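Objective 1b of the project was to move from sequence-level analysis to a structural picture of ligand recognition. The entry below was assembled by the postdoctoral researcher (A.K.) and checked by the PI before modelling. It contains the amino acid sequence of the target and the SMILES of the bound compound, zinc ion.
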Amino acid sequence: MKKFLCRVCGSALYFENSVCIHCGTDLGYSRQEHTIVPVNSDGTYVDQSGETWHRCANLHLSGCTWLAPAKGDQCFSCCLTRTRPNDQDARGLAQFLDAERAKRHLIAELDGIGLPIVTRVEDPHLGLAFDLLSSVNVDVVIGHQNGVITIDLAETEDAHREKVRAKLDEPYRTMLGHFRHEVGHYFEGALVFSDQERTRQAREIFGDDTRNYQDELNRHYAEGAPDGWESEYISKYATMHPYEDFAETFAHYLHINDTLDTAYEFGLARRGPQESTTFRDVVEDAWLPLSAALNQINRSMGHDDLYPFIIPDTVIDKLTFVADLRTT
Ligand SMILES: [Zn+2]
Ligand SMILES: [Zn+2]
Ligand SMILES: [Zn+2]
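Corresponding predicted holo structure:
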């Protein structure tokens, strides 16, 4: 994430700020300018081309800080949400606020990398959309199908998420992580399976994705990950099916890209993800030393490791394939 400064007083801002706590200026996020801009008292911002932007209609519903093209409209990120909890579901709405915050972080990162988002309006069959569902009264299964990402909003609650994490013996589980994994499935459809040559390459790297998904799912939950999985996969879940290996790899590509970018912006890394020619160089020269240092820093505070993963050489090849999708 880049470093944001208030254009009025120069103070440092967080991506989530809707007001500068130093000078009191109202703020909005301009997707077009990839930055936080001051908002006038009438809730508008006029960009360099003279176009007027308005605060997103969901400022109070979901704490959305983004700007929308017309008064009363939703911003680009909010428009991607197809379903949200109903107005009577207070617990679901509180969870929805946290989920939307993580989703805006995701969309801003995808924009920064230059990964193209095709919306459900542009492509009603395969475009990207989010169903952010409350599981207060019904069960919700997290997943992706033909561009639609379903999120169980209960995963925003720490106690629930930690319980699931411990049960599944995962080293890491966050709402942002869920979004990064699920959007990996979307991009595999949009950027890999839409192209014969890339599909062939993906099968060489991740394995034969025509394997029956349900059979592999059943095997995974009956037998667990195969012995020695650590030398070829980033996580146990990645061993389940080539689709999951790609999505897990994609999530790690986004973890590494964003965290390294942030470290670089704040002077904690010698180079950012954009400064290297290959993603292998990014991982080996910048990410591995940085993540080791960040893990030590977390331990100094009595926390678990920030990045509780070991990246084997095979996974660096997988990450490089994913990183190259943005330029091909
Ligand atoms: Zn300020
Ligand atoms: Zn919005
Ligand atoms: Zn998945």
